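Let's practice the habit of predicting before peeking. Look at the sequence and jot down your guess about where helices and strands might fall. Then scroll down.
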Amino acid sequence: MTLAELVTTTRGLCNEISTDSGALLSDTGNLLEFLNDAQEQVLLDLIPIMPGQFTVTENITLIAGTQSYALATNPDFWQIWKIAKNVSGEPPRELDPIDPLDEPYYTEVAETDSEPTAYYVLGQTIYFVPIPSASTTAYAKVWLVRPEAVTGLVTAGPSYIPKIAHRLIAYQAAALIATMLEKDPAPFIQLYARRLSKVVEVWNARLQNKIRTVRESVAERSAFNSGLSYDRDLDW
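Done guessing? Here is the structure:
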């Protein structure tokens, strides 16, 4: 749905058109803000269901002596799935995500290394551990969750949210508007829940007949699979 279609649908749910006398909603003001808020909520609900739909990759070039890095293309990422070594001609190796408070267990004070083995994230900044001792072009590849347009809905509508889920934005916006007007948002919440349930059902239908496997640990993916029983779930 385009932005104009979402505006029209939301207005229809709220039983108010822009030409109504004393209209409370503005297509370029508060209604747009409600739609932007609703889009974020829809994205949050869909990420656990279809993470690949919102996942992109970006490379990070290491600079000698620099520990912290901001992403150039996706500085406003919502979540990082993983970071892996990405040097051409070498096998990929996933870096360990660690808690910032655990950094002393992974490195000594001011320790440097040409190949960092771990990382942690504070806000929108990525910190490599140990501190890189050499500059390496595109050393690490980051898999991350991207938001929709940072400035909100664009004219063409959502960029990454599947079309079957677009109407969720209108339902959520209507619920927010009802809350603002101190009206009952329950009908819109019910519409949202029913549509979300169907979106999940349709999206997962293609996966029902596929073999399910247990993803091994970072260490096992980076080294070798021993073939022992703890490498898989025998009861699944």
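How did you do? The chain is about 30% helix and 20% strand.
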